[in-house]
Amino acid sequence: MLQRFPRALAPVILASAAALALSACASNRGKADTQYVARDVATLYNAGKYRLDRGQFQLAAALFDEVERQHPYSPWARRAQLMSAFSYYAARDYTKSIQSSQRFLSIHPGNRDAPYAYYLIALCYYEQISDVTRDQKITRQALDALGELIRRFPSTRYAADARLKIDLVNDHLAGKEMEVGRFYQRRHQWIAATLRFRKVIDSYQTTTHTPEALERLVESYLALGIREEAQRAAAVLGKNYPGSQWYERAYKLMREYPPQLAAQTPG
After folding, report:
1. What's the whole-number mean pLDDT along residues 154-161?
2. Per-residue pLDDT averaged across 5-13, rounded?
3. Is the pTM of this model over 0.90?
4. Most buried of 137, 139, 144, 186 (most Cβ within 10 A)?
Protein backbone atom coordinates (compact mmCIF):
# COMPACT_ATOMS: atom_id res chain seq x y z
CA MET A 1 0.00 0.00 0.00
CA LEU A 2 1.29 3.45 -0.76
CA GLN A 3 2.59 5.57 2.03
CA ARG A 4 0.05 8.18 2.91
CA PHE A 5 0.91 11.83 2.83
CA PRO A 6 -0.20 14.07 5.74
CA ARG A 7 -3.83 15.05 5.41
CA ALA A 8 -4.44 18.25 3.46
CA LEU A 9 -4.84 21.48 5.29
CA ALA A 10 -8.11 23.37 5.09
CA PRO A 11 -8.09 25.66 2.07
CA VAL A 12 -6.13 28.76 2.97
CA ILE A 13 -7.84 30.66 0.22
CA LEU A 14 -11.20 30.52 1.89
CA ALA A 15 -11.64 33.60 4.04
CA SER A 16 -13.41 33.14 7.33
CA ALA A 17 -16.23 35.51 8.13
CA ALA A 18 -16.14 37.64 11.24
CA ALA A 19 -16.51 35.27 14.18
CA LEU A 20 -19.82 35.37 16.01
CA ALA A 21 -20.19 34.50 19.66
CA LEU A 22 -21.10 30.83 20.08
CA SER A 23 -21.99 29.02 23.25
CA ALA A 24 -19.12 27.17 24.90
CA CYS A 25 -21.44 24.38 26.00
CA ALA A 26 -22.04 22.88 22.54
CA SER A 27 -21.71 19.16 23.25
CA ASN A 28 -25.47 18.54 23.28
CA ARG A 29 -26.39 20.82 20.40
CA GLY A 30 -25.19 18.69 17.46
CA LYS A 31 -28.61 17.63 16.25
CA ALA A 32 -30.12 21.02 16.87
CA ASP A 33 -27.44 22.67 14.72
CA THR A 34 -28.43 20.73 11.60
CA GLN A 35 -32.20 20.85 12.01
CA TYR A 36 -33.86 23.10 9.50
CA VAL A 37 -34.25 26.47 11.11
CA ALA A 38 -34.06 29.58 8.98
CA ARG A 39 -30.86 31.32 10.01
CA ASP A 40 -28.81 34.10 8.55
CA VAL A 41 -25.90 33.01 6.40
CA ALA A 42 -23.16 34.23 8.73
CA THR A 43 -24.55 32.28 11.67
CA LEU A 44 -24.73 29.07 9.65
CA TYR A 45 -21.28 29.44 8.13
CA ASN A 46 -19.62 30.20 11.44
CA ALA A 47 -21.43 27.33 13.12
CA GLY A 48 -19.87 25.05 10.48
CA LYS A 49 -16.45 26.60 11.01
CA TYR A 50 -16.81 26.16 14.76
CA ARG A 51 -17.54 22.45 14.34
CA LEU A 52 -14.74 22.01 11.81
CA ASP A 53 -12.17 23.61 14.12
CA ARG A 54 -13.18 21.11 16.83
CA GLY A 55 -12.81 18.08 14.60
CA GLN A 56 -16.56 17.45 14.25
CA PHE A 57 -16.21 16.99 10.53
CA GLN A 58 -19.52 15.35 9.60
CA LEU A 59 -21.47 17.95 11.55
CA ALA A 60 -19.43 20.75 10.00
CA ALA A 61 -20.14 19.40 6.52
CA ALA A 62 -23.87 19.26 7.24
CA LEU A 63 -23.83 22.89 8.38
CA PHE A 64 -21.91 24.03 5.31
CA ASP A 65 -24.43 22.15 3.16
CA GLU A 66 -27.17 24.02 4.99
CA VAL A 67 -25.55 27.32 4.03
CA GLU A 68 -25.91 26.37 0.39
CA ARG A 69 -29.43 25.08 0.87
CA GLN A 70 -30.78 28.14 2.70
CA HIS A 71 -28.76 30.80 0.89
CA PRO A 72 -27.97 29.38 -2.59
CA TYR A 73 -27.35 32.75 -4.21
CA SER A 74 -25.13 34.16 -1.49
CA PRO A 75 -21.37 34.53 -2.01
CA TRP A 76 -21.11 32.47 1.17
CA ALA A 77 -22.65 29.49 -0.61
CA ARG A 78 -19.62 29.20 -2.88
CA ARG A 79 -17.23 29.12 0.10
CA ALA A 80 -19.49 26.72 1.95
CA GLN A 81 -19.46 24.23 -0.95
CA LEU A 82 -15.72 23.85 -0.80
CA MET A 83 -15.63 23.85 2.99
CA SER A 84 -18.23 21.08 2.90
CA ALA A 85 -16.04 19.09 0.49
CA PHE A 86 -13.04 19.49 2.78
CA SER A 87 -15.06 18.55 5.87
CA TYR A 88 -16.24 15.32 4.23
CA TYR A 89 -12.65 14.59 3.18
CA ALA A 90 -11.43 15.14 6.73
CA ALA A 91 -14.14 12.75 7.94
CA ARG A 92 -12.94 10.19 5.34
CA ASP A 93 -16.32 10.28 3.67
CA TYR A 94 -14.64 10.28 0.29
CA THR A 95 -17.74 9.74 -1.83
CA LYS A 96 -19.48 12.83 -0.46
CA SER A 97 -16.29 14.86 -0.67
CA ILE A 98 -15.94 14.01 -4.35
CA GLN A 99 -19.60 14.85 -4.96
CA SER A 100 -19.29 18.21 -3.18
CA SER A 101 -16.12 19.06 -5.09
CA GLN A 102 -17.69 18.11 -8.40
CA ARG A 103 -20.78 20.20 -7.63
CA PHE A 104 -18.55 23.17 -6.87
CA LEU A 105 -16.73 22.73 -10.18
CA SER A 106 -19.95 22.35 -12.16
CA ILE A 107 -21.25 25.66 -10.80
CA HIS A 108 -17.96 27.58 -10.59
CA PRO A 109 -15.62 26.04 -13.20
CA GLY A 110 -13.51 29.17 -13.54
CA ASN A 111 -13.29 30.03 -9.87
CA ARG A 112 -9.86 30.69 -8.42
CA ASP A 113 -10.42 27.84 -5.96
CA ALA A 114 -11.04 25.31 -8.74
CA PRO A 115 -7.50 23.85 -8.46
CA TYR A 116 -8.16 22.99 -4.84
CA ALA A 117 -11.43 21.27 -5.74
CA TYR A 118 -9.62 19.12 -8.30
CA TYR A 119 -6.93 18.42 -5.69
CA LEU A 120 -9.52 17.25 -3.17
CA ILE A 121 -11.01 14.86 -5.73
CA ALA A 122 -7.57 13.41 -6.45
CA LEU A 123 -6.80 13.05 -2.73
CA CYS A 124 -10.06 11.21 -2.14
CA TYR A 125 -9.15 8.60 -4.73
CA TYR A 126 -5.49 8.50 -3.70
CA GLU A 127 -6.23 7.75 -0.06
CA GLN A 128 -8.43 4.80 -1.01
CA ILE A 129 -5.69 2.96 -2.88
CA SER A 130 -5.57 -0.64 -1.69
CA ASP A 131 -2.71 -3.14 -1.64
CA VAL A 132 -1.60 -4.84 -4.84
CA THR A 133 -3.50 -8.04 -4.12
CA ARG A 134 -6.82 -6.26 -4.72
CA ASP A 135 -8.54 -4.68 -7.70
CA GLN A 136 -6.81 -1.45 -8.77
CA LYS A 137 -9.79 0.48 -10.15
CA ILE A 138 -9.44 3.17 -7.47
CA THR A 139 -5.71 3.40 -8.20
CA ARG A 140 -6.40 4.19 -11.84
CA GLN A 141 -9.07 6.71 -10.85
CA ALA A 142 -6.47 8.39 -8.63
CA LEU A 143 -4.01 8.46 -11.51
CA ASP A 144 -6.62 10.01 -13.83
CA ALA A 145 -7.63 12.63 -11.25
CA LEU A 146 -4.02 13.58 -10.51
CA GLY A 147 -3.30 13.83 -14.23
CA GLU A 148 -6.35 16.03 -14.78
CA LEU A 149 -5.19 18.40 -12.05
CA ILE A 150 -1.72 18.69 -13.60
CA ARG A 151 -3.15 19.17 -17.09
CA ARG A 152 -5.48 21.99 -16.05
CA PHE A 153 -3.33 23.77 -13.47
CA PRO A 154 0.32 22.80 -14.09
CA SER A 155 1.84 25.75 -12.22
CA THR A 156 -0.02 25.41 -8.93
CA ARG A 157 1.36 23.98 -5.72
CA TYR A 158 -1.35 21.34 -5.91
CA ALA A 159 0.06 20.14 -9.24
CA ALA A 160 3.54 19.92 -7.71
CA ASP A 161 2.23 17.55 -5.04
CA ALA A 162 0.22 15.64 -7.64
CA ARG A 163 3.39 14.90 -9.61
CA LEU A 164 4.97 13.28 -6.56
CA LYS A 165 1.86 11.22 -5.97
CA ILE A 166 1.74 10.10 -9.61
CA ASP A 167 5.20 8.56 -9.22
CA LEU A 168 3.97 6.57 -6.24
CA VAL A 169 0.75 5.56 -7.99
CA ASN A 170 2.70 4.31 -11.01
CA ASP A 171 4.99 2.33 -8.73
CA HIS A 172 1.92 0.80 -7.14
CA LEU A 173 0.40 -0.16 -10.49
CA ALA A 174 3.72 -1.67 -11.56
CA GLY A 175 3.72 -3.65 -8.33
CA LYS A 176 0.34 -5.06 -9.27
CA GLU A 177 1.63 -6.18 -12.68
CA MET A 178 4.61 -7.83 -10.99
CA GLU A 179 2.39 -9.61 -8.51
CA VAL A 180 0.28 -11.07 -11.32
CA GLY A 181 3.35 -11.91 -13.41
CA ARG A 182 4.93 -13.86 -10.56
CA PHE A 183 1.62 -15.68 -10.08
CA TYR A 184 1.75 -16.86 -13.70
CA GLN A 185 5.41 -17.82 -13.37
CA ARG A 186 4.72 -20.07 -10.40
CA ARG A 187 2.24 -21.93 -12.62
CA HIS A 188 4.66 -22.06 -15.55
CA GLN A 189 2.35 -19.92 -17.66
CA TRP A 190 5.31 -18.22 -19.27
CA ILE A 191 3.60 -16.27 -22.05
CA ALA A 192 1.09 -14.69 -19.65
CA ALA A 193 3.93 -13.87 -17.25
CA THR A 194 5.96 -12.30 -20.05
CA LEU A 195 3.10 -9.99 -21.00
CA ARG A 196 2.89 -8.68 -17.43
CA PHE A 197 6.62 -8.06 -17.12
CA ARG A 198 6.66 -6.34 -20.53
CA LYS A 199 3.86 -4.08 -19.30
CA VAL A 200 6.06 -2.94 -16.42
CA ILE A 201 8.97 -2.17 -18.72
CA ASP A 202 6.87 -0.44 -21.37
CA SER A 203 4.50 1.54 -19.15
CA TYR A 204 6.28 1.90 -15.79
CA GLN A 205 9.94 1.89 -16.69
CA THR A 206 10.89 4.62 -14.19
CA THR A 207 9.54 2.66 -11.20
CA THR A 208 11.46 0.57 -8.70
CA HIS A 209 10.09 -2.64 -10.23
CA THR A 210 11.89 -2.38 -13.57
CA PRO A 211 15.07 -4.33 -12.63
CA GLU A 212 13.09 -7.28 -11.34
CA ALA A 213 10.78 -7.18 -14.36
CA LEU A 214 13.80 -7.47 -16.67
CA GLU A 215 15.22 -10.39 -14.71
CA ARG A 216 11.83 -12.13 -14.72
CA LEU A 217 11.74 -11.67 -18.47
CA VAL A 218 15.07 -13.45 -18.72
CA GLU A 219 13.59 -16.37 -16.76
CA SER A 220 10.43 -16.48 -18.83
CA TYR A 221 12.14 -16.21 -22.21
CA LEU A 222 14.60 -18.95 -21.31
CA ALA A 223 11.70 -21.15 -20.21
CA LEU A 224 10.07 -20.52 -23.58
CA GLY A 225 13.31 -21.28 -25.40
CA ILE A 226 13.64 -17.75 -26.78
CA ARG A 227 17.26 -17.20 -25.83
CA GLU A 228 17.74 -14.16 -28.08
CA GLU A 229 15.02 -12.25 -26.22
CA ALA A 230 16.39 -13.40 -22.88
CA GLN A 231 19.82 -12.13 -23.86
CA ARG A 232 18.35 -8.80 -24.94
CA ALA A 233 16.56 -8.35 -21.60
CA ALA A 234 19.74 -9.29 -19.72
CA ALA A 235 21.74 -6.74 -21.74
CA VAL A 236 19.27 -3.95 -20.91
CA LEU A 237 19.41 -4.99 -17.28
CA GLY A 238 23.22 -4.98 -17.27
CA LYS A 239 23.41 -1.57 -18.93
CA ASN A 240 20.96 0.16 -16.60
CA TYR A 241 21.33 -1.78 -13.33
CA PRO A 242 24.80 -3.36 -13.44
CA GLY A 243 25.25 -3.61 -9.68
CA SER A 244 21.83 -4.96 -8.81
CA GLN A 245 21.00 -8.39 -7.49
CA TRP A 246 18.64 -8.81 -10.44
CA TYR A 247 21.48 -8.46 -12.93
CA GLU A 248 23.57 -10.98 -11.00
CA ARG A 249 20.68 -13.45 -11.15
CA ALA A 250 20.12 -12.85 -14.86
CA TYR A 251 23.84 -13.22 -15.61
CA LYS A 252 23.94 -16.50 -13.70
CA LEU A 253 20.88 -17.80 -15.56
CA MET A 254 22.36 -16.95 -18.96
CA ARG A 255 25.50 -18.92 -18.08
CA GLU A 256 23.62 -21.86 -16.65
CA TYR A 257 21.28 -22.19 -19.62
CA PRO A 258 23.30 -22.30 -22.83
CA PRO A 259 21.45 -22.41 -26.13
CA GLN A 260 20.85 -26.16 -26.12
CA LEU A 261 19.25 -26.01 -22.68
CA ALA A 262 17.35 -22.77 -23.09
CA ALA A 263 14.04 -24.50 -23.64
CA GLN A 264 14.17 -26.01 -20.18
CA THR A 265 12.47 -24.27 -17.26
CA PRO A 266 14.91 -22.35 -15.01
CA GLY A 267 15.07 -23.67 -11.49
Report:
1. 96
2. 42
3. no
4. 139
